[in-house]
């Protein structure tokens, strides 16, 4: 798959709530995932570690109230999209989260992801 096809598939899966399937299907074994400084596990490398990071995040959520993802913007081997989530967290209550997500694609797989958002105070 080229970058546009990977981007379209990621958005398609996220829109139907299959974010973990997106990791399984689209991520390279040596993926690097970068969160904002100060976040737990700000840099994680490897598909298994990224999968665990995502699973750990889902365990902090008590209830999902809604989410949306924009259409991707593609430039060569990179694409970006925005994600919005409305969640009630077990320890922090209800929050609306908005982030910019930037991905790099090599050989038909996502090899790097980075998320930009405001850290909760």
Characterization of this structure:
- This protein is an alpha+beta fold and 121 residues long.
- It has one domain (3-116): Nuclear Transport Factor 2, Chain: A, CATH 3.10.450.50.
- The chain has three helices and seven strands, in the order H-H-E-E-H-E-E-E-E-E.
- The protein has helices at residues 3-15, 19-26, 47-59; strands at 27-34, 43-45, 61-69, 73-75, 78-89, 93-106, 109-116.
- Strands 1, 2, 3, 4, 5, 6 and 7 form a seven-stranded mixed β-sheet that branches.
- Helix 1 (3-15) packs antiparallel against helix 2 (19-26).
- The longest helix is centred in the N-terminal third of the chain and has 13 residues, at 3-15.
- The chain starts with a helix and ends in a 5-residue tail after the last strand.
- The whole-angstrom Rg is 14 Å
What share of the residues does DSSP label as strand, in percent?
over 45%
Could you describe the largest sheet, including whether it forms a barrel? Answer: 7 strands, mixed
Q: Portion of residues in helices?
A: 25-40%
Oligomer: single chain
Shape: globular
Unreliable stretches = none
N-to-C order of helices and strands: HHEEHEEEEE
Architecture per CATH nomenclature, i.e. the level-2 architecture: Roll
Note the total helix count: 3
Report the strand count: 7
């Amino acid at each position: 798959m080229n970058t546009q096809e990977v981007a379209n598939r990621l958005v398609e899966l996220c829109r139907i709530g299959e974010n973990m399937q997106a990791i399984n299907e689209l991520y390279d074994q040596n993926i690097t995932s970068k969160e904002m400084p100060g976040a737990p596990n700000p840099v994680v490398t490897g598909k298994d570690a990224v999968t665990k990071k995502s699973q750990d995040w889902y365990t902090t959520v008590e209830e999902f109230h809604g989410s949306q993802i924009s259409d991707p913007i593609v430039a060569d081997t990179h694409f970006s999209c925005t994600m919005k989530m409305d969640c009630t967290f077990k320890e922090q209550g209800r929050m609306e989260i908005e982030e910019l997500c930037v991905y790099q694609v090599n050989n038909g797989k996502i090899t790097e992801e980075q998320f930009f958002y405001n850290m909760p105070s």
